[in-house]
Amino acid sequence: MANAIDHTHDPALRSWVESANDAATDFPIQNLPLCRYSPGDDPNLVLTGVLIGDRVFDLSGLRDARLLDDLPGISNQEQEDWVWWDFSWIVSCPAAARRALRARLSELFREDNRSLRDNPHLLNAAMRYQRDVTFAAPTAIANYTDFYASIHHASTVGAMFRPDNALLPNYKHVPIGYHGRASSIVPTGTAVKRPKGQQSPPDGEVGAGPTFGPCKLLDYELEVGCIIAGDNAIGEPTPISHAQDRIAGLCLVNDWSARDVQKWEYQPLGPFLAKNFATTVSSCVVTREALEPFRIPAYARPQGDPRPLPYLFDEADQASGGFDITLEVLLQTASMAKAGTAPMTISRSNAFRDMYWTFAQMIAHHTSNGCNLAAGDLIASGTVSGLEPASRGCLLELTWDGPGKPRKPLQLPGGETRTFLADGDTVIFRAWCERPGFRRIGFGECRGTIVGA
Ligand code: CA
Fold it and tell me: What is the pLDDT of residue 1?
């Protein structure tokens, strides 16, 4: 497995797409994330593209213009066989082919390369401004699994419900997860309708029964998603030593949660209708190749914590299985939007470096019983929360003030407060990686606005 930082990461690289050279862009030439989008009015026409600066380029268009010929690992015939350069196909290609595609795109967009820059006909056909397109989910996701890999999230939430026994005894041995619902995954920008559901009887009201109606405790969950590369046949686990090769790239995921529904329904089988009404994903996938400079060691488990069982332990994964990503959550209410007040940052942290389990461990565990993960499947990390209150990745934690105490609402501009989400609220996730000696790269946005039930 190549684990390489190469010329495509050179911070001195500049692009002829001038907006890609802006220090503030998420999409410099060193990033080149992949996306799916509709370029015009026809939502049924979905193209796979690469983002650079403020533009998006159609990969099929580049292929048709023969700019992607002779990529090592993909025969030209294989390319021809695909009408569209589809994201699902890219993630089913060998890792060497994805690295070659990245190297070719880096070359095409370099400031001194004229093959695309000086082809107005092709630019007109294959290039769009991001503001003019509609993003789809970055891949046609067939299967979605949600993990629970942040020990700080698990500990804080556990403390709310089980003050004496916050972390259950399996947590440090098993990457806890459940199967989510792929059909309700929506792309960034899609409105999210407040779900209705059955809610628990009010605490302390003797004899009261459950009710059915609009969710009263609507929350977001800040998560990092991993798009799976390649396939393993059913019955054939992916060993931990090969699990990193199955990471095609990362995206942002908002696992919207109806807390009142969740509280009542989750025992004994886990989340169901509290989660599957909508899950929002960001516009693009930042490839694993782009993330190479931002790999870090796995979370260092405190002394005394159990060593993972052998099928979950790999020295190489311990050395570089983490990712250094800054994650940010912003909130804008309807009145803030009306008054022209910018979204307010309500949390920001590097807590993703403290995930108790790496994506490779989650993949090895997921397939350890023979379950087949398919190219393009989505696995999400679980809510990313840090030790500090300001780094908590959901309102359930962010407005919690300790056992037995009333919730402490967020104070927003204009005097508004929030304990959970109100109709008209917009939640925006952003994320980026930065490290001295490398170009900052970003993940774009994962955005959703709540509309009334
Ligand atoms: Ca979740």
Answer: 41
Residue 72: pLDDT above 90?
no
Catalytic choice (7, 121, 152, 153): 153
Taking residues 213-226, what's their average pLDDT?
98
Choice among 110-119, 134-143, 388-397, 420-429 with the minimum mean pLDDT = 134-143
| Domain span including residue 239 | 144-451
Q: How far is the CA of 255 from the centre of ligand 1 (A)?
A: 5
Ligand 1 mean position, distance from CA 271 (Å): 9
Cα of 181 from ligand 1 centre, angstroms: 12
Helix, strand or coil for residue 90?
helix
Q: Give distance in angstroms: CA of 223 to centre of ligand 1.
A: 7
Average pLDDT, the chain: 94
Closest listed residue to residue 56, CA positions, set 67, 48, 68:
48
* Closest among 410, 357, 350, 362 to 386, alpha carbons compared: 350
pLDDT of residue 253 exceeding 70, the answer is yes
Query: According to DSSP H, which parts of 339-433 are helical?
Result: 359-367, 395-398
Domain boundary among 114, 135, 156: 135
Among residues 253, 147, 259, 249, the alpha carbon closest in space to that of 194 is found at 259
Q: Domain count for the chain, please give it.
A: 2
- For residues 346 and 351, give the distance between their C-alpha atoms in angstroms, rounded to a whole number: 15
7 is catalytic: no
| Same domain membership, residue 119 and residue 153 | no
Number of Cβ within a 10 Å radius of residue 419: 17
